[in-house]
Amino acid sequence: MKKSKIVTTAIISLIALFAVLIALNFLIPEKAKKPGQPQAGQGSSANAGSSGGPGVSERSGNADASAGSNNSGRAGNADASANSARGGNAGASAASNNSGRGENSGNAGNSGGAGNARGGPGGGVSRNATAVRVTPVSSGTIEKSVIINGEILARNQVTIFPTIGGKLVETRLGIGDRVSSGQVVAMVDPSRPGEVYSRSPVVSTVSGTVIQAPFSIGDTLTTQSAVYIVGDLSSLLVETFVPERFVASVRQGMRAQLKFEAISGETFTAEVIEINPVLDPASRTLRIRLRFVNPDPRIKAGMFATISLITSRKVNVPVIARTSVINTYGSWIVFVADENNTARRREVTLGIDNEDFFEILSGVSMGENVVSAGQNFLSEGDPVRIVD
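Now predict its structure.
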């Protein structure tokens, strides 16, 4: 019975407490609830109004509307009839010095620390200009070539065979000697054991220079043995083999540039004069021969040549440096620096190319400044700084 009375008393006490709290909530004036209501014992702030309207500020204190006042604490000054909390702006007629955190002055009619916002007008981050090198689109001649190797041969190269088999008993010429057509160059003895025959002469069928002499005295020859190889060294040829993928571009009169290890630093010009009508089935290459446009006595038969065969050539077409072009996902692009030193992205169509240049079919115009160095770090609209 005593426990029941205790519980009942506790419940009544709680209900009474809640009733008192609700009553106090209705009885407290509305102004006391506002966050700007001044409270006793706290720091001071100035309220100023150019038109006499009162300003309310946290940690209050009053200041004359026309007098300069020093305010401390996390507060500012309010314009007429405006409230500010922890940072405001000076009134239209009040000159005030504010100290503490987040205070602004000089703008009338602003409230609530709006003058302290970051990234306001003029506060944006500017991009630095990228240093680039540009090259104008110009008209020029562009040639596309394929690099192959070749060998220098005598123009007329003939092998001298004996008319009968036997032992080589006499040779009358050596490598490099001149020979005339009809001249006897060697003797062959066709005698056999028990049979003696007279010697048979080996006669040159052409005039020229002895290039090879593969046999020596005492060797046994047949009618298929090459006693000498004679060539006309006054006119040299270049023999080379073109890979199958370039065969369609080869034609009579095509020019080529030749370089030799023995003659470093110089380039010689030759042109195609002979094209084999069929490909070699084993190597899938096409044999061609070229002649020198300007023969040079330093070039010898048997030399090894590096040949740059020009397969395409265009004159007076727009060209740009090969380093200017970027391949992105199958598209070719360049960057152009406009009159405001701003990078503009252009998609271009390319023609023939070589190791230095590209032919431009569309995308840029003659005279435009194409970025040739530094374009890998650019995007559309980026500022650029042109350097030499």
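The chain has one helix and 23 strands.
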